[in-house]
Amino acid sequence: MDHEKPTVCVLDALTYVGFWILKGLLSRGYTVHAAVQKKGSETEIEKKIMEMERVEDRLAVFSVDVLDYHSILVALKGCSALFCCLDSPDGYDDIIVDLEVRGAINVVEACAQTDSIEKIVFTSSLAAAIWRENICSEKEKDVDESCWSEQHFCRKMKLWYALAKTLSEQAAWALAMDRMLNMVSVNAGLVLGPGVAQQNSRSTMSYLKGAAQMFENGVLAVVDVIFLADVHIRAFEDSSATGRYFCFNQIVNTEEEAVKLGQSLSPLLSLPSKYECQGSEVYAERLRTKKMNKLIEGTA
């Protein structure tokens, strides 16, 4: 006889990744607190969540503000885990960077004050690991979970998305270790999936700032959102999962693959209708997924 699945929280369930984690958890029999930050007019994802709440007994929706610590505590009550997916629907600048860092700190502190929380799965990005001053001169060097993007370089190049993901993940790790919390981070590549160009447009374009450099340096990677959600849930369920996990399905390292990526993100990116690939160069892949592969195989 199966044990009843615990109650978990997804915050912010209105983000593209958060929504697909929510769907994955419900399909596996979990009871889910969907913590949502409502900003402006109702989005397509918000409509879907409200429709799901009407028919799904195991789903409860909580309105939160990550800058309001007490609203987070209410959503976390009775939950054994938090899936933290912070993303700005308005794109990124230096002000949004600060707000996302403050939000991450509030969320982790709220977990520390919630006795039932056993684990945090924190959604981060490969952008928090790949940007450095000497990125072009280190092409032979692998990039793995020990790497972090350099703050001063991100500021200089106005890579605000990368800076937000770097600083918010570092702040979350520092506080989680100080509070002795069990945390795992999933550092995702560029997220692709159903309706991504419409439902996740600002984050997609923010991630792609510097795409040419990423491509030429073998660190432009993509991940399917359903696979990404599954990795998050595995990271929660596997008690041996620890630290950071790079998560991607493919490294885009040929012109043909880059064109296919651009076409898949239409109308966000526009290519000539009869674009012909000019070059045959294959850029060396520098990202490694050894840890993620072990997690998927159940040997994390």
Structural commentary:
The protein is of the alpha/beta class and 300 residues long. Helix content is 41%, strand content 16%. The protein has 12 helices and 10 strands. It has a 7-stranded parallel beta sheet, with helices on both faces. A 3-stranded mixed beta sheet has the order 7-8-10. α4 links the parallel β4 and β5. The longest helix has 19 residues, at 94-112. It starts with 6 loop residues before the first strand and ends with a helix. The mean pLDDT is 91.
Give the secondary structure arrangement, pairings included:
Elements: E1 7-11, H1 16-27, E2 31-36, H2 44-55, E3 59-63, H3 69-76, E4 81-84, H4 94-112, E5 119-125, H5 151-156, H6 160-178, E6 183-188, E7 190-192, H7 196-199, H8 201-207, H9 211-216, E8 221-224, H10 225-237, E9 243-247, E10 250-251, H11 255-264, H12 290-297
Helix pairs in contact: 1-10, 3-4, 4-6
